[in-house]
Amino acid sequence: MDRREFLKVTGAGALTLFLSGCGINAVSGDKKAGAAPSAGGAEAKPGGVSNGKKLKIVVLCGSPHKAGTSALLADKFIEGAQAAGHEVFRFNAAFEDINPCRGCDACGMNGPCVIQDAISAKLIQKLVDCDMVALVTPLYYYGFSAQIKTVIDRFYSRTSAIHRKKSMLMATAWNSSDITFNALQEHYNTLVRYMEWQDVGRVLGYGCGSRSAIEGSEFPEQAFRIGKSL
């Protein structure tokens, strides 16, 4: 199936799937709550997303700081998910040998990729086999970090195989204005629609420009609760 045909096939039903997903709104405050669409409310019953099934979860981290603010959200989400019995694989893109998609189309959207790096060797099969993908990023110029965007672009080699997963977004930023996460969320929303993912929640860490700032906020606990409630 070529790219044009694939887009025709996936586009029709994707919006319905996105709008009907079981979401967990983990953004607090009146201004911030409006930024994160949700269908399930701030709290979810344990097992509500997995229906009691043990999930295989891939956590993609895009921060170049091992003890950074978004890394803490990943830590807490993983802690909660593992406490609930789920299997988690973490990929720290900034500390792996990864390369950007060349757009050569040798994979035909169904692999293998001509680039033999950590994405090919360690990650791509985990993405194919998983039930859920969690994207974790610091906000860089109102979007994903280059490290995690590199991984997202490489989804191309297994596009159809990475479709129809559950997903979530966790991000942190220095500023806390109304526009802070708008562009990032639009990108994520479009990715969810195109990949026919089910968005199960997001944690948007406004005003978290330092480790001490996020440690004193509610966001790490929100990430833990989402993981635990899966």
From TrEMBL:
GO MF assignments: oxidoreductase activity
Highest taxon in the source lineage: Bacteria
PANTHER family (alphabetical): IRON-SULFUR FLAVOPROTEIN (PTHR43278:SF2), NAD(P)H-DEPENDENT FMN-CONTAINING OXIDOREDUCTASE YWQN-RELATED (PTHR43278)
Residue ranges annotated for the NADPH-dependent FMN reductase-like domain, each copy included: 56-201
Xref: InterPro entries: Flavoprotein-like_sf, FMN_Rdtase-like_dom, ISF_SsuE-like, TAT_signal
Pfam family, one: FMN_red
Organism: Succiniclasticum ruminis DSM 9236
Alphabetically ordered keywords of this record: Flavoprotein, FMN
The protein, known as: NADPH-dependent FMN reductase
